[in-house]
Specification:
heterodimer, A: mainly alpha, B: alpha+beta, Immunoglobulin-like, 2 domains, 6-stranded antiparallel β-sheet, 19 helices, about 30% helix, elongated, signal (chain B), GPI transamidase component PIG-T (chain B), membrane (chain B), transmembrane helix (chain B)
């Protein structure tokens, strides 16, 4: 009970901290930072799209707004609401704080489920030695607190970007899948893919989650155990159950149709759905906007010869898809971890990355604190993240505002950031595989 | 043969006679207007006008009208077109902003082109593109840059009212020089060999503070209501220069500190005198204009002198060409006075000279000698408009258009402004084109009146926006604002983000920045015009007719220079290789992590111990990126053999391919 109290204390302080930051004048200029607001997630562009819509021009005309029409319908009216004596966009800010809170709660709930199944599987494998360490603090609590107190999350929440909503949808889908609620999982997945396209690849872990249940050690181990003990006392089923998956697919198609119908109603006079797909998903895939962000693709496509542009666009997008299958084959028994890796990869290779994406996968990393305890380079990674987050604004300032540096300065930090993410992904994957190996050794000996 | 030829000649003569007898013929007039400016400079405005009757009645062959222009009109079905090349900025505060001279001849720096086509709306763009290419060749200028859809716009009503068939484009950075003037002069029947154009000495023109050469076409060849009385095609060519006459008079500073305006003559400002008219010209006239400010200053002077006991002509009634203030070296043939000035009490005066009777032996050289220092000010428009950028850095900024009320014409507001109930309001139209890399946030538009922010709906009467598309079209903003007449200053502010371009889209001098073309600010409530006594001669002169036309007051704002952040231009290969390396690192290491199996690892560690001593197999293994089995010593040699075999095979295939392609190509 004391633990619970302690947890809620930190949650409420994080919320209060956000509210204080919101009341700083001009949002601390965070909304114009390229690290926070990308062309896809910037609320300022959303306000422009809403203004165009209000003056009966297509919200997508003018290459300003590239988000979903649904966001426009919900957040648009909030951008023009003004309260006397309150900062601008207060309504949107409050909405983002609420979204962050819900995300944290869902992360905690999912984390607790994962923790439960982890403990159960360890027990069934008779590896009680590991259980002692994991009793200290639930992985869900850790993940939720990482999410709430991560400076990147706070900056995203205060900095007027719509990524908290996107993150909420992703987490909602994972939560739904973890608790085997097919409609909820489908809803989160459909909306998340509608908002930013890349979460579409999460269909693989979601189906695994629905089919196999939350993360477990490899099935092989249980079979071994079974054959050794010759008993039927194993509760963990290792058969793929099709029922929830079929439910998920039906619900997903239903939600897709629903979202598309809503969008087409909203955009009836302005070119309809084809215009929407061209301006949102097309914009993501063709990388038209070359304004700097923390990714590396903007500089690459600003410099690459036009002749090769299409080729490299295909190469970089296929790079995400290429790794899906090997990862799925190797990690199918750990769908949540698979989802974490997918999110990390897409936030590294996506066209317009922002710190909001890293905030999400860094929080999800908290789910696997006990599994990944043996991870290599973790201190180096931590220092690297701190260094890049400090250096990136400095380099941006030198290049854009002072004019004493050039684009390579900022590109170098983006490069370092990409390398850090690569190391994180690779090391966490190998640490997880190592953990499975370790479990096998422990359970057999 | 001779007989045939003579018959042909005869037919030709008859044809010519009939054409002549038709009454309407091609006409060419040349005129020059000289005007002293308040800041000791002289304005020279050349006006060449070529008219041809419609093709329907006149046919395709012309004596005077330039063929190139005729074909242009026919091919692109132009109804109206204006092309201007300008160097320098018109100084609205000193050279006038409230007369038809400034509103029709003051142009933004660089090239400005607009055209109205008489074609169905879907063909307009194609015609515009061809027109820009043609003009580019015709005038040796980079007008072809206006072909790209990012460079031109289709204003709805903000610029001029032609529904959908108008295209407007401007190149603010175009350098204007003699290579643009020469083709322009070639359109004149006498080129610059005779007539008024012969005094266009290149060095003295380009030495000036401002010069603007303009070409304006007006045709009703294709209009449906051919009954309109206007002739077929009118080509109006004007050249406006502001020059600084040299003053050699050392005693020009008077005791009371006032400066005597430098005296000038045609030969002193242009370097040569007018050697007769162009024989093809129907009219060849030179005017000297004294604007109302000078006239009233002279009147005051006369009144002073009269009270001092001197008898002098009353300027207002006589318009004398020699008076205590100044003296003209040649007696004017006619003095034209403005009769019903819309502004103030004083009238402007035109002295007219005909060049007909002058020739090579006796060139016409008009001198203007100031006798007493004079100070006057030109007519101001209701607002002085200027535009500037706010903010620093290369990420975002704001464009502000500031309107400062010119106090002198505050009484003009009452005459010009519209009344809404009891409140007098002044209408201001703003037309602005912004290139796509200046991404304007229209929802941030704010209007400040006398320094205080105002609600947009109180001021903004009408607005049309077409937002810019990245790499497709520029943003266009057309606004109608109504300010209360009592307003002292107003500002329109809008925020923008700066875009980032691809490395190829930057011009060679990328760090100089990018130009935003001038905004056009017009005051439709005010339509200054000159009224002259309706005499035959004045109605015949196209320039005087032009001066009497009703035109709203228009002023162009400054061109803005926006610096954009640049990538490193020397880096493409480095960026490509480094980025691809990082991606390869990701792909390779992740795949490696996934592929590695425990058993394999144990084997690997065992083999490592065994392989400690052998260098070559390890190197080879590294090269191949594969673990090598630590078996027998023969393995290394067999592996080497395999490798050489592979290399030989690949080389063989390459040689074969080479010969095959060689064979194919030969």
């Amino acid at each position: 009970m004391a633990k619970m109290k302690w947890y809620w204390y930190w949650v409420s302080t994080s919320i209060i901290f956000r509210l204080i930051l919101i009341y700083f004048p001009n949002n601390l200029n965070l909304s114009s930072r390229p690290e926070v607001a990308t062309p896809l997630t910037s609320l300022r562009r959303l306000a422009e799209g809403y203004w165009l819509k209000q003056s009966s021009i297509s919200p997508y005309s003018g290459s300003m707004y590239h988000g979903s029409p649904l966001l426009l319908a919900i957040l648009g009216p909030l951008t023009v609401i003004r309260f006397e004596g309150q900062p601008e966009h207060i309504a949107c800010s409050l909405l983002f704080v609420i979204a962050d809170l819900i995300t944290a709660i869902l992360i905690r709930a999912t984390g607790q489920k994962l923790h439960l199944s982890y403990k159960r599987s360890l027990k069934s494998l008779n590896v009680t030695k590991l259980l002692e360490t994991s009793e200290i603090l639930s992985a869900g609590d850790i993940a939720a607190l990482i999410y709430l107190w991560n400076p990147l999350t706070i900056v995203t929440c205060v900095g007027m970007s719509t990524s908290p909503v996107e993150n909420l949808m992703i987490v909602l889908s994972l939560y739904g899948a973890c608790s085997r609620l097919a409609p909820l999982a489908a809803f989160g997945w459909v909306l998340a893919s509608h908002l930013s396209l890349y979460p579409a690849i999460l269909i693989i872990p979601v189906i695994f989650l629905l089919g196999y249940g939350p993360d477990t050690p490899p099935k092989k181990l249980f079979r071994q155990q079974k054959s050794e003990s010759n008993g039927n006392d194993l509760v963990i089923q290792n058969r793929f159950s099709w029922r929830p998956v079929v439910h998920f697919i039906l619900w997903a198609s239903f939600w897709t149709v629903y979202v598309l119908v809503l969008c087409s109603i909203y955009l009836k006079q302005y070119g309809g759905l084809s215009e929407m797909f061209k301006r949102t998903h097309g914009f993501i895939l063709t990388l038209e906007d070359l304004s700097p962000n923390i990714g590396v693709l903007w500089y690459f496509f600003a410099e690459v010869f036009d002749f090769f542009r299409d080729f490299f666009l295909i190469v970089f997008h296929v790079n995400i898809l290429f790794m899906l299958l090997p990862l799925a084959i190797r990690l199918y028994h750990r769908p949540c971890f698979l989802a974490f890796i997918y999110i990390a990869i897409s936030s590294m290779l996506k066209s317009y990355p922002s710190v909001g994406d890293s905030a999400l996968y860094l929080a999800l990393l908290g789910w696997f604190v006990y599994e990944l305890a043996e991870m290599q380079f973790s201190f180096f990674l931590f220092c690297g993240y701190v260094g890049v987050t400090l250096l990136s604004p400095v380099m941006h300032n030198l290049w854009i505002w002072r004019g004493t540096g050039n684009a390579n300065f900022y590109y170098a930090t983006a490069m370092a950031y990409a390398c850090l993410q690569i190391i994180l992904v690779v090391e966490s994957v190998s640490a997880m595989l190592q953990h499975d190996r370790m479990l096998r050794k422990q359970s057999t000996t | 043969m001779t007989f045939l030829r003579s018959i042909l000649f005869f037919i030709l003569l008859i044809q010519l006679f009939f054409v002549k007898s038709n009454g309407i013929d091609e006409e060419f007039t040349e005129e020059l207007l000289l005007k002293p400016l308040p800041d000791r400079k002289v304005l020279a405005h050349f006006h060449f006008d070529t008219k041809t009757p419609p093709t329907k009645t006149y046919g395709h062959h012309h004596r005077l009208f330039p063929k190139a222009i005729y074909q242009l009109v026919q091919k692109f079905r132009i109804r109206e077109m204006e092309l201007s090349f300008t160097q320098g900025r018109w100084n609205y505060e000193r050279w006038g902003a409230f007369d038809s001279m400034s509103s029709s001849n003051a142009k933004p720096p660089g090239v400005e082109l607009w055209a109205v086509f008489d074609v169905p709306p879907h063909q307009v763009d194609a015609n515009w593109k061809n027109l820009t290419q043609t003009l580019s060749g015709l005038f040796c200028a980079s007008i072809n840059f206006l072909e790209s859809s990012t460079a031109y716009s289709a204003p709805a009503w903000g610029f001029r009212t032609f529904s959908g068939k108008l295209r407007y484009g401007a190149l603010p950075r175009e350098a204007v020089c003699t290579e643009n003037l020469t083709p322009w002069l070639k359109l004149l029947p006498c080129r610059d060999k005779a007539g008024l154009a012969s005094i266009l000495d290149r060095p003295s023109i380009y030495k000036g503070f401002y010069h603007s050469q303009r070409l304006r076409l007006l045709s009703n060849e294709f209009s449906l209501d051919a009954s309109a009385e206007a002739p077929g095609i009118v080509l109006e060519q004007t050249l406006t220069v502001v020059l600084q006459p040299h003053s050699h008079d050392t005693r020009s500073i008077y005791s009371d500190g006032r400066l005597l305006h430098p005296s000038w003559s045609i030969s002193s400002i242009f370097g040569r005198a007018v050697a007769g008219k162009c024989v093809l010209a129907n009219l060849s006239t030179i005017y000297v204009e004294l604007e109302s400010g000078v006239v009233s200053a002279l009147n005051n002077l006369n009144v002073d002198l009269e009270t001092g006991g001197h008898g002098a002509d009353d300027m207002g009634s006589e318009g004398s060409w020699s008076n205590p203030g100044f003296e003209l070296s040649v007696k004017p043939e006619r003095v034209i006075k403005e009769v019903n000035s819309s502004h103030g009490k004083s009238f402007s005066i035109l002295y007219e000279y005909s060049v007909d009777k002058y020739g090579d032996n006796e060139p016409f050289d008009l001198g203007f000698i100031w006798k007493l220092p004079m100070a006057w000010s030109c007519l101001h428009s209701p607002f002085h408009a200027s535009r500037f950028l706010m903010g620093s850095g290369n990420q975002r900024g704001s464009i502000a258009i500031s309107l400062r009320s010119t106090g002198s014409s505050s009484e003009g507001f009452i005459g010009g402004g519209d009344f809404f109930g009891d409140v007098c309001k002044v209408r201001v139209d703003i037309f602005q084109v912004v290139p796509w890399y200046v991404k304007v946030y229209f929802h941030t538009l704010q209007v400040y009146v006398d320094g205080k922010p105002e609600l947009l709906k109180d001021i903004l009467e009408k607005m049309h926006v077409s937002p810019s598309e990245d790499k497709v079209s520029p943003g266009v903003m057309e606004m109608v604002l109504r300010f209360p007449c009592s307003v002292k200053s107003a500002a329109v502010v809008i925020d923008f983000d700066k875009g980032f371009l691809h490395i190829d889209e930057y011009p060679p001098d990328a760090n100089q920045g990018f130009d935003i073309p001038s905004a056009v600010i017009s005051f439709p409530d005010f339509e200054p015009r000159m009224h002259f006594l309706d005499e035959n001669s004045s109605s015949k002169s196209p320039m005087l007719l032009k001066l009497q036309e009703k035109n709203p007051v228009i002023s162009y704002t400054e061109v803005l220079l926006v610096p954009l952040a640049t990538p490193d231009f020397s880096m493409p290969y480095n960026v490509i290789t480094i980025t691809c390396t990082v991606f390869a690192l990701y792909f390779g290491s992740l795949l490696n992590a996934l592929r590695r199996r425990v058993g394999e690892e144990e084997r690997f560690f065992k083999s490592k111990a065994a392989n400690q001593t052998r260098l070559l197999p390890r190197l080879l293994a590294k090269l191949r990126g594969k673990q090598q089995e630590p078996t027998q010593s023969t393995s290394s040699s067999s592996l080497g053999r395999k490798l050489t075999l592979k290399i030989v095979l690949v080389a063989g295939v390459a040689i074969g391919w080479h010969y095959y392609t060689d064979y194919q190509s030969s």
